[in-house]
Amino acid sequence: MRYKDLTGKELIDAYKGERLGILGHTDLEINPTNGRIESIVIQDFSMLGLKKGESRAKIKWKDIEVIGDDMIIVKPNTLSD
């Protein structure tokens, strides 16, 4: 699967049932040694796309449970800042 196929999908926390963000409005942490995605970093943006503050969350790639047509369901062990 390519990154462009993931862009625009909503990230949903399966435990809380809440929307975490949209992939494409996030940053990826990539391991420089093996080129694999380590985590998704969710920035805090306003409706106009402006950054609201320094608030952000990080989801480990291994915590992704399902990648569907419209959304990505995550079951984070810890949602860290």
TrEMBL record:
Give start and end of each PRC-barrel domain.
Answer: 1-77
Looking up Pfam families in the UniProt record yields: PRC
**Superkingdom per UniProt:** Bacteria
UniProt name for this protein: Sporulation protein, YlmC/YmxH family
